[in-house]
Specification:
mainly alpha; 6 helices
């Protein structure tokens, strides 16, 4: 299991919320940040997740694929962020 999904599962965040989070991440990263805030993830766990992502950004793609979402949407969202369209 993807370590990000594993941490979220350990925090009793349901599969539907995890999928919703990664779907938001693939469509609009700024929206995903607001969604993360609503999950009330303890600061230490959020820091762990961020450290994992910083050390291995490929974990996002792995999680998206594991959840059966479209990773090309992540690439589109990144391009929008770089262009300032978000």
């Amino acid at each position: 299991m993807n370590p990000i999904i594993e941490i979220l599962t350990e925090l009793n965040i349901g599969d539907d919320k995890i999928s919703e989070l990664f779907k938001a991440l693939t469509e609009n990263p700024m929206m995903a940040m607001a969604f993360i805030g609503q999950l009330n993830i303890p600061a230490d766990k959020l820091q762990s997740i961020m450290s994992l992502v910083m050390a291995d950004p490929g974990l996002i793609e792995q999680a998206v694929n594991e959840l059966g979402l479209d990773f090309s949407k992540v690439e589109e969202a990144k391009a929008k962020l770089k262009a300032g369209d978000v």
